[in-house]
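quick one
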Amino acid sequence: MTYPETMEKNMQTASSGLDGVIAAETRLSHVDGLRGRLVIAGVSVEDLAPNASFEEAVYLLWNDALPTAADLASFEERLAARRRLPGAASRTLHDAAAKRVPPITALRMAAGTLDADQPDAGTREQAESVLAQFPVIVASYHRLLAGLEPLEPRTDLGAAANYLYMLTGMEPPSDRVRALETYWNTVMDHGLNASTFTARVIVSTRSDLISAVTGAVGALKGPLHGGAPGPALGMVFEIGSAQNAEPYLRGKLDRDERLMGFGHRIYRVRDPRADVLSDAAARLVRSAEFEETYALARHVEEVAVRLLAEYKPGRGLQTNVEFYTALLLHGLGLEADFFTPTFAASRVAGWLAHCLEQMESGRILRPESRYVGQVNRPWVRQDERA
Ligand code: ACO
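structure w/ acetyl coenzyme *A:
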């Protein structure tokens, strides 16, 4: 059977998992997988994450410039004023909590209602509202699952402090706010990852921001992407003791299972975000209980990287961001099913930045597929089929 010419062309260019395909130009972030470097709007993640406030880092990402004190104050004020959720989002969260829907699914459901009170105009103002409301959705749902009414967002706190306040009802100490801001700054953008690509594809059709971030949450929640930290921490707890690490991990690799929190499509060396978060988690080590978990996690990491090199030689499988995300968010007192929604509360800044950038470039994202099915199948009438 001869394939038409276009199929021949596709067969030559098909790339499994879109590996190595450049689908967009961006000025937002650069991931250098061979050198293990991440640059966000020109600043290395090591410099940006532990030093900037979340709002400062988002301003940089969105405006391609560090804010002056006046710019930052006005940005913070605008975001704080936009935190209140539309009624439809609150009702959706109440309904979801009554059915004990998982938090990341509740976030996806509520995200889709954020344009209920005003149509999505695809503007910077709309983006500010979405950014301000994402953490409020997550914190409100946390309260509802605990049988409590959500707290009113505070306008006198920054995004990270307000998130921790809305989760716990207590104004958080500065070291915890710093830890969360370091985490949020670390994960806000990361090239054309699966959820960001999803968001860009959606707005490339001239659809809207709410559709894009809702689709992006759907892509993020999978265990091969943003859903990894819960299982990564679960693995550390299941291992339980240093001497159990090697037999446990060998067992998983012998069964051809993946070790969550390891491996990356782009990084062939250690994910630089893992170092930033490991340092932030180390600073958070306070309680004896967390110190023990932290020490065990370091040991599990060491054994996992050694075994991955043995089982998958030449693959360069190293620790990724999710391993220390799990540890840091656990140290902040979050339950595992709130790890991915807390990730989303930051990554939404990246999704929105990519959407605004994509809207400027204008072209619909429409790759091709390689057809591997039948050609020339004869049509047989229903009453003549065997
Ligand atoms: N544990 C064990 N083996 C692994 C792992 C892992 N964590 N990651 C990759 N491999 C193996 C694969 O089984 C495969 O082996 P094979 O060639 O013998 O079949 C080989 O390495 C290559 O795997 P691919 O799936 O081609 O790698 P890909 O680049 O497509 O996947 C991914 C990247 C999805 C992150 C993968 O490494 C993985 O599944 N990791 C675990 C999940 C995880 O931690 N995800 C979070 C990533 S960070 C983020 O998204 C925010």
